[in-house]
Write a structure and sequence with these properties.
Elements: H1 3-13, H2 27-36, E1 44-46, H3 48-66, H4 70-79, H5 84-93, H6 98-104, E2 108-111, E3 131-133, E4 139-141, H7 142-154, H8 174-178, H9 184-201, E5 205-207, E6 216-218, E7 227-229, E8 236-238, H10 251-261, H11 264-267, E9 275-277, E10 284-286, E11 293-295, E12 302-304, H12 319-322, H13 335-379, H14 389-406, H15 408-414, H16 419-443, H17 450-483
Antiparallel strand pairs: 1-6, 2-3, 3-4, 5-6, 7-8, 9-10, 11-12
Helix pairs in contact: 3-4, 3-5, 13-14, 13-15, 14-16, 14-17, 16-17
Length: about 475
């Protein structure tokens, strides 16, 4: 096997960052993964053809059960989040129930109506145009229907196109729309929007948000921060809300945090600098790697990029750097002082959030550089890819740990002061310390002993899983308590 093919094989097969749900039927494997990975979540990645087959099965079931057209079945399923059995049960209980009957009653066919004087939209007469109506019986000329559908489709509307009559909520089924839309490009656009709307309305499906990615996730639970990874673009997504995966922060909190970060009234006061002065010799230093353990090239002083403190102090007391300290002298009577303190607190967490985001980008470069160096060694005959696999695994683990660490800061920002927050910040600090140690060793991989690096990998991953396991268990208990 050539070096290039060897690398391609390892890049996929040796990836321990695998969260696909291909083994849903294996109870033993699921149990093992649940123990080792607190974020493990059974799901599957489907292609468009597979999703279409899944949707068509529900459409066929409802169509045959209620003896209606597939187009009308689609309208009903979209309205009831693709729960065909619920629609069937409601129909059996009361066939004339408005919520179901208004959506599955066949539309009135196209015809001339001499009793009407003119179309309510264009004022044309029945002698000049044919008229059509949906289940509601509101008649309009076919030209107006065509214009209505064209406008709606161009605006991205498909499944929710309604009758033109004022305050009428009856929706137009697919076959009725296509019978009035003749332009091929417009018909294709409409059917594309229909498929997207079907997926979005289905509680078990979610599009991968990756750019130009065609994969679709399927899972059976949407509560909590559920991590899924795309087979195609490898992006990490929260299945619950569709945002980038954000554990340990829950969906509601991350939305609140991102909204806050986008608020110019706060972020405009903060400029994230890419250079800082060495706290010992004052020489300007540019951060060109993900590690926050900095060493001045001039005086060799080791310090923390975040707080500029001596790195030697970042041992057992490391959490002092990541933890926000409330001002004990703050007087509640001064609104100005409170506002200043609130901004100070926000900037503390935002700076660390943004710093880890930048470190992730810089470490992407480290990952690519490491991949190239390993390839060069393999091509030069200095071992096989398997011999250097541990370096690649270390870099990917670092990325995973730092990603988790970044999302601990929005969570900590909104936590109430107390023992729970102190414990979380302690776990957060322990993880941060091990991540920086791992980052430092990876950036000096050529001189780092393999055993030392693998030991650091094990420690970092245990810190990460401990923090997440504690968070997920606490969140699960809180959700259960709130339901009770």
């Amino acid at each position: 096997m050539s070096a290039e093919s060897d690398m391609e094989y390892s890049d996929n097969d040796g990836d321990d960052y695998d969260y696909y749900g291909e083994h849903e039927d294996c109870d033993m494997e699921v149990a093992d993964r649940t123990k080792s990975d607190p974020e493990y979540f059974v799901f599957s990645c489907l292609k468009v053809e597979e999703v279409e087959k899944l949707l068509n099965e529900s459409i066929e079931l409802l169509s045959n059960s209620l003896q209606i057209t597939p187009s009308l079945a689609k309208v009903a399923l979209h309205a009831y989040e693709w729960n065909a059995q619920e629609i069937i049960n409601k129909y059996k209980e009361n066939a004339n129930e408005v919520l179901v009957f208004s959506r599955v009653k066949p539309q009135v066919p196209s015809q001339s109506i001499s009793s009407r004087s003119s179309c309510a939209v264009c004022a044309s007469t029945p002698q000049l145009h044919k008229y059509s109506a949906l289940a509601c019986g509101h008649y309009f000329c076919n030209d107006c229907w065509a214009m209505h559908f064209e406008v709606q489709i161009m605006q991205g509307v498909s499944n929710t196109i309604r009758c033109m009559a004022q305050n009428c909520e009856v929706r137009a089924p697919e076959d009725f729309v296509l019978s009035h839309v003749t332009k091929p490009a417009l018909r294709d656009r409409y059917q594309q929007f229909m498929f997207k709307d079907h997926v979005k309305s289905h509680p078990q499906l979610r599009f991968c948000p990756g750019p130009n990615c065609q994969w679709i996730f399927r899972a059976f639970i949407r509560e909590g921060a559920r991590r899924v990874e795309c087979k195609g673009c490898e992006s990490l997504t929260c299945f619950s809300c569709g945002a980038p995966h954000h554990a340990p922060t829950d969906c509601a909190t991350i939305r609140q945090w991102l909204t806050k970060c986008a608020d110019d009234s706060e972020t405009a006061n903060y400029i994230s600098a890419h250079t800082k002065d060495c706290p010992k010799c004052q020489i300007c230093i540019e951060k060109n790697g993900g590690c926050n353990h900095m060493q001045c090239g001039s005086c060799r002083h080791d310090f923390c990029w975040v707080c500029l403190g001596d790195w030697k102090a970042h041992g057992s007391e490391y959490y002092e750097c990541s933890r926000y300290k409330e001002d004990p002298n703050l007087t509640t009577d001064s609104q100005h002082a409170q506002a200043r303190e609130a901004l100070k607190k926000y900037l503390h967490y935002y700076e660390r959030w943004e710093n880890h985001a930048r470190s992730l980008k810089l470490e992407e470069q480290t990952l690519e550089s490491l991949k190239s160096r390993i390839n060069e060694k393999v091509m030069a005959g200095e071992g096989t890819w398997i011999d250097w696999q541990y370096l690649w695994d270390a870099a990917k683990l670092l990325k995973r740990c730092r990603y988790t660490l970044q999302y601990t800061y929005p969570y900590a920002y909104y936590m109430e002061v107390g023992p729970r927050k102190e414990l979380f910040e302690y776990q957060q600090a322990q993880l941060e310390a091990e991540i920086e140690n791992l980052s430092w060793k990876i950036e000096r991989a050529e001189t780092t002993h393999r055993g030392d690096l693998e030991n650091q990998m094990d420690i970092a991953e245990k810190r990460r899983t401990t923090l997440l396991k504690d968070f997920l268990e606490f969140s699960s208990k809180s959700n259960n308590s709130s339901k009770v």
